[in-house]
């Protein structure tokens, strides 16, 4: 069976929760705003992927939610990391940095050998 998703999409699936927590740490945000912020960072994520991820984070009690009335529109749900979410993000961030450093060293070694 042929894999249809790109490696980049697979990588993003693995780190989406961490990215969402990072964006929320800046300031409370609502779902669509997260999609926009990810796109601005060069990560194209379908809105349909954001809400299941937010539900997953909420179920694990890593985020807190607040309903705010919209400016003339419907109320929005804003998300921010809970205390557990902040601690989890810090742990994931350290792990990610170590992992990325290891992968980079392998890739850089291979790239130098090809040059």
Q: What would your notes on this structure say?
A:
- There is one protein chain.
- The chain contains four helices and three strands, in the order αβααββα.
- The chain has a single domain (about 5-115), classed as Arc Repressor Mutant, subunit A (Orthogonal Bundle), CATH 1.10.10.10.
- With about 120 residues, the protein is an alpha+beta fold.
- The longest helix is centred in the C-terminal third of the chain and has 32 residues, at about 85-115.
- The N and C termini lie far apart (about 35 Å).
- It is elongated and about 60 Å long.
- A hairpin with a 7-residue loop joins strand 2 and strand 3.
- Helix 1 packs across helix 4 and helix 2 (about 30-40) crosses helix 3.
- The chain is about 65% helix and about 10% strand.
Keywords:
115 residues, alpha+beta, Arc Repressor Mutant, subunit A, 4 helices, 3 strands, 12% strand
Short description:
This protein has 115 residues and is an alpha+beta fold.
Number of strands: 3
The overall pLDDT, averaged over residues, is: 88
Distance between the termini: 34 Å
What fraction strand?
Answer: 5-15%
Radius of gyration: 17 Å
Uncertain regions spanning at least 5 consecutive residues: none
CATH architecture, by name, is Orthogonal Bundle
Structural class: alpha+beta
Would you list the SSEs in sequence order as H and E?
Answer: HEHHEEH
Strand order of the largest sheet: 1-3-2
With helices defined by DSSP (H or I, 4 residues minimum), what is the helix count? 4
Show the helix and strand layout:
Blueprint: H1 7-26, E1 29-30, H2 31-40, H3 47-59, E2 63-68, E3 76-81, H4 83-114
Antiparallel strand pairs: 1-3, 2-3
């Amino acid at each position: 069976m042929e894999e249809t998703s790109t490696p980049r999409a697979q990588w993003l699936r693995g780190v989406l929760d961490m990215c969402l927590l990072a964006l929320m740490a800046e300031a409370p945000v609502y779902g669509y705003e997260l999609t926009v912020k990810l796109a601005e960072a060069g990560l194209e994520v379908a809105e349909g992927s954001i809400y299941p991820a937010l539900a997953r984070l909420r179920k694990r009690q890593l985020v807190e939610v607040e309903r705010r009335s919209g400016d003339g529109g419907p109320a929005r749900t804003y998300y921010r990391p809970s205390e557990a979410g902040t601690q989890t993000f810090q742990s994931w961030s350290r792990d990610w940095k170590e992992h990325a450093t290891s992968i980079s060293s392998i890739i850089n070694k291979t790239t130098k050998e090809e040059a």
